[in-house]
């Protein structure tokens, strides 16, 4: 049995790490509630074991900053200034307390380089796990899509919240797609195709914010691999072209329907009607600046944002009582003020700068991981212009875990350690 599962790890602990990743993702795929802190406890215990054994502890400043900054600029302020006390007890309190506490469970990711190195969890095992996830999603997402006729409304009910769901798996598909360019075997084309078709399925969901990264993906892949992987680039380009042509000729294309909806939103906005997807966002973003002016340092709090939206909904200015601003920057500006906004920017820029600094590494695997990591984070950043994905602890956890893992593999860039 152990031999059959060797691709998940060369020892029991490495296999356990693979298992935690599978559990983390499959709970999210099926939209089931999952206490992510279980995984953090497991990793903390692993690190404690290494520490007690007096083995080498591997720390990296950018990784530590990435894992700690949101806790200090977001979570801590709610306890230091008693900001949780203003939230009504019951459902809202539990929801917002989970959001506030979510960055506490990110802290153990500082220890991932030590854990991965000591227990021999390597890049190939990490991506084998992602292959399983992407392979399953290929089948699952297309079956669900066809069953629901790729109808945006039905998909939104099924995947609720659909935008965050799409952000996670568009970004994950891109990650595996980029890694396939590191692989040289003929079978790697299968990985390329699977990741692309999975990406296409989520593009058809119509979450327009997730589309923004595609031009950057094509640009960087061409820049990195036009000499060494020309055939794979052409193969990928051909699949993308076929996908676009198919959407251009079929009736009621989900992609072009979403463009039409945007044009309709634009027309309504020009007529001063904001009760639509785009218009509501403009109202909320403008309101974020007003809320920021009330509490510029620490913001009005995450519940304060929802309370304001409910007030606007009662006046008929917003169509419903939205829980957040549908934009990571405006949300943090309003809810957490300058402190929160600075923390958010640092949490995004730190991994982006880290990955960019490795673009010119002599190690081909490191260069590929750097590109994959850069595009993964950048995908979340761009998608965050139209959605506040950090409202959902499971999504936040996945983002920080994947990013910290990629940073860890690069930190362990000795060829034997990778």
TrEMBL record:
InterPro entries: O-antigen_ligase-rel_domated (IPR007016), WaaL-like (IPR051533)
Membrane topology label: Multi-pass membrane protein
Compartmental location: Membrane
Any one Gene Ontology molecular-function term assigned to this protein's record: ligase activity
All copies of domain O-antigen ligase-related, residue ranges: 194-344
Keywords from the UniProt entry: Ligase, Membrane, Transmembrane, Transmembrane helix
The keyword Transmembrane helix appears for this protein: yes
TM ranges: 12-30, 36-52, 59-80, 100-119, 126-143, 163-183, 188-204, 210-226, 233-250, 333-356, 368-385, 391-412
Name of the molecule in the record: O-antigen ligase family protein
Species of the source: Acinetobacter genomosp. 15BJ
């Amino acid at each position: 049995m152990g031999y059959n599962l060797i691709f998940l790890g060369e020892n029991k602990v490495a296999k356990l790490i693979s298992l935690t990743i599978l559990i983390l993702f499959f709970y999210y795929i099926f939209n089931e509630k999952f206490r992510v802190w279980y995984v953090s406890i497991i990793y903390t215990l692993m690190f404690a074991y290494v520490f007690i054994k007096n083995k080498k502890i591997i720390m990296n400043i950018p990784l530590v900053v990435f894992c700690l900054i949101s806790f200090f600029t977001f979570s801590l302020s709610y306890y230091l200034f008693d900001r949780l006390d203003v939230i009504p007890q019951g459902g809202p309190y539990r929801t917002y307390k989970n959001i506030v506490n979510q960055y506490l469970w990110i802290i153990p990711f500082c220890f991932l380089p030590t854990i991965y190195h000591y227990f021999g969890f390597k890049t190939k095992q990490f991506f084998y796990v992602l292959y399983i996830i992407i392979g399953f999603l290929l089948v699952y997402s297309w079956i669900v899509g066809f069953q629901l006729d790729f109808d945006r409304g039905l998909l939104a009910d099924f995947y609720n919240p659909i935008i965050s769901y799409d952000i996670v798996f568009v970004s994950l598909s891109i990650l595996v797609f980029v890694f396939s360019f590191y692989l040289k075997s003929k079978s790697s084309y299968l990985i390329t195709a699977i990741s692309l078709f999975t990406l296409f399925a989520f593009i058809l969901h119509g979450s327009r914010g997730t589309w923004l990264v595609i031009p950057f993906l094509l640009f960087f892949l061409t820049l990195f691999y036009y000499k060494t992987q020309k055939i794979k680039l052409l193969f990928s380009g051909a699949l993308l072209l076929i996908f676009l042509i198919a959407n251009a000729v079929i009736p009621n294309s989900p992609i072009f329907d979403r463009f039409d909806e945007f044009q309709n939103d634009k027309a309504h906005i020009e007529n001063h009607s904001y009760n639509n997807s785009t218009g509501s966002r403009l109202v909320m973003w403008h309101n974020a600046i007003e809320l920021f002016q009330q509490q510029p340092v620490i913001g009005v709090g995450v519940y304060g944002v929802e309370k304001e939206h409910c007030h606007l909904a009662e006046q008929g200015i917003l169509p419903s009582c939205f829980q957040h601003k549908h934009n990571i920057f405006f949300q943090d500006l309003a809810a957490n003020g300058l402190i929160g906004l600075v923390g958010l920017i640092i949490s995004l820029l730190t991994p982006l700068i880290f990955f960019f600094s490795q673009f010119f590494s002599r190690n081909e695997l490191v260069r590929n991981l750097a590109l994959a990591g850069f595009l993964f984070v950048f995908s979340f950043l761009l998608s965050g212009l139209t959605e506040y994905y950090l409202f959902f602890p499971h999504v936040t956890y996945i983002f920080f875990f994947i990013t910290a893992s990629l940073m860890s593999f690069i930190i362990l860039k000795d060829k034997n350690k990778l």
